[in-house]
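Handoff note, outgoing to incoming analyst
You'll be picking up this chain. Sequence as last confirmed:
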Amino acid sequence: MDKEKASTVVGVKRTRRQLETRPAERRAAGKSLRHVVPRNAHSAWRAPPRRADPIAILRSADALRQPDLVPLRYGRMLQSPFTFYRGSAGVMAADLAQTPASGIRVQSCGDCHLLNFGGFATPERRIIFDINDLDETLAGPWEWDVKRLVASFVLAARANGLSDKDGGDAAVACARSYRRAMHDFAEMNVLDVWYARFDDSKFLSQLPQGQKAILKKRIAKATSASSSELVYARLVEGTDRKPRIHDDPPTIFHADASLAQGNLHLIKKALVGYRETLPEDHRVLFDHYRLVDAAIKVVGIGSVGTLCMVLLMMSIADNPLFLQVKEANASVLEAYVGSSAYSHHGQRVVMGQRLMQPASDLFLGWTTGPNNRHFYLRQLRDVKLKPLVETYDSEMLSIYGKICGWVLARAHAKGGDLWTIAGYLGKSDQFDEAMGKFATHYADQAERDHAALKAAVKAGTIEVAPER
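Most recent structure output, in case you need it:
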């Protein structure tokens, strides 16, 4: 076999010779990269003279969104620099493309901020903490995920009324945890890296006593019944024989009533294609359910305006199952790192999610809708536990930073060259401190960009719609 023949895993290409290189050699290769891109070079952020207009980048993506929901998206982004940051992954991708990078690629999250992590249940009914939003996943520089993550800690600290020192400490703690975890994974059996996960017991062991008690109560409530049963009473109205998703505009609503039956027909047709993307044993499970109703559901900040729906499925025994359908467009990273190995963006998201997460949803799959629109599906929520970041003090923010750093390292270790990354990072704190400085510098940039959005709204060039 040609030793230069490339092998591709979800878009991360390696030659056969690279795959056969021993870990010690890879570590040495990573260490040598410090001469090309010094670790302290990552600390810098200064907007280049011809930096792309952040508002223009945001507006360019509006063409792919539902026009009537775009003002709601901007309304959410306008609330604070932190909410702006959460909705502006495309802006930061353009900026990150101007920053130093070692040249090592991983399967990246693409939108790696601290609120895109959370708790959820595995198919084995274990609660784990991991990355839970991978709409932008693509093969890219590992540094980009780390930089987006650490900057989010400074912005979250400011939103909570904490100091920049508190935010910087959390950012450094996150980067340090990433570096140390990558070294640990580089010493492990490769199979053990794939088995590694941050479960609820490990998460609880990191917390102060007060936070531990709060989380235990949340876990108990979230696992008291199936997620679909817990959601059913809140989302559904009507009789048991004719259930219907309850409208709660502008976040949950049905499409035009005159199109309702036609829409259900199109969804049923798309579900046929979706079913084929599931493993065969999961198809048997899926076949126990029938589609009863579908409604549009507006979620998050970055996703607002892309088509997202919730499907109410019922079994023959009238047990509910909610599936979330999300539209998938090209990753914001694509313009800077190249196209995905998958032409279908729903498949890109699913395959990236399966690689980066230690366990993924039973119903995770993809399909194509009308007008060749790409979608992926999963359960609406499966014991979803959102981190209560808005309540965190400085101690808790740093603890959370350590946990996120470990989780991101594990995700990168699964889909990237962990030995070369570990060799590059080394055992000193140079990279950690550089990330703390970058985080503060880029948080300042996000505040300036948020001010630019406020100015555009005031000038009337951008319309906003507040939450109801």
